[in-house]
Amino acid sequence: MEPGFWLQRWQEGRIGFHREVVMPLLEQYWPTLELPPDAAVFVPLAGKTLDMHWLAARAHPVLGAELSPLAVEAFFAEAGLVPQREQDADGVHHRSGRIDLVLGDVFALPAATLASMRGVYDRAALIALPPDMRRRYIREVYGRLPRGCRGLLVTLEYPQAEKDGPPFSVPEDEVRDLFAADWDVELLERRDILASEPGFRAEGVTALSTAVYRLLRR
Fold first, then answer.
1. If you write DSSP's letter for every residue of 146-213 in order, what string do you get?
2. In the chain, what's the furthest Cα-to-Cα distance?
């Protein structure tokens, strides 16, 4: 899971994790966070997700972090946008409207950058990381988010022995263990999605669910 792994995936177009539509679970459960429209939202390992546009359309300032320049370029080009670029200690900011997509290492974002985030949306970040990096990710990235920050986390659950990640299976007990020190965790839904995921079935996966959690930083 070194940076080169993800850069190569984007170069080869192996981005099955990208969705061509807004995530329905975001549309369904984001309102339950009860964040005011002007609350800034952090989207880690953002790729070119349309979910950032959805959040921005609801008046949220959106800060995304992405490692691949191809993903950043595609995000704006596919929306017909030409971002303003500015480099600082975070990386290269690409700004258009309410969206600020930073090209850089999410682990290198300083606490000062994340201190104003009142929300976090994680659909494909935690499940993209192997176990050892997941713990570092929660400690170093989520650990820089301020008290009172609210989040929506979407994970996958399947028998890990049946498939090599990413995306990885992150079961509920691990989610609760990872966040236990600083976050309240509430499971909102678990849904069987195996029938709608032929790629997983083709790899021999016998069970597959999504789980959605609401997070609150204490």
1. PTT-EEEEEEEE--GGGS--SSPP--HHHHHHHHTTTEEEEEEEEEE-GGG-HHHHHTT----EEEEE
2. 47
Q: Locate tokens 């258009």: which residue? A: 96
Structure tokens at 70: 């191809």
Cβ atoms within 10 A of the Cβ of 197, count? 15
- Tokens in use for 61? 């300032």
Element (DSSP H or E) covering residue 214: strand 209-217
Each residue's pLDDT tens digit in the chain (218 positions)? Answer: 566 665 676 566 665 565 679 999 999 999 999 999 999 999 999 999 999 999 999 999 999 999 999 999 999 999 999 999 999 999 999 999 999 999 999 999 999 999 999 999 999 899 999 999 999 999 999 999 999 999 999 999 999 999 998 999 999 999 999 999 999 999 999 999 999 999 999 999 999 999 999 999 99
Cα Rg for the chain, rounded, in angstroms?
Answer: 16
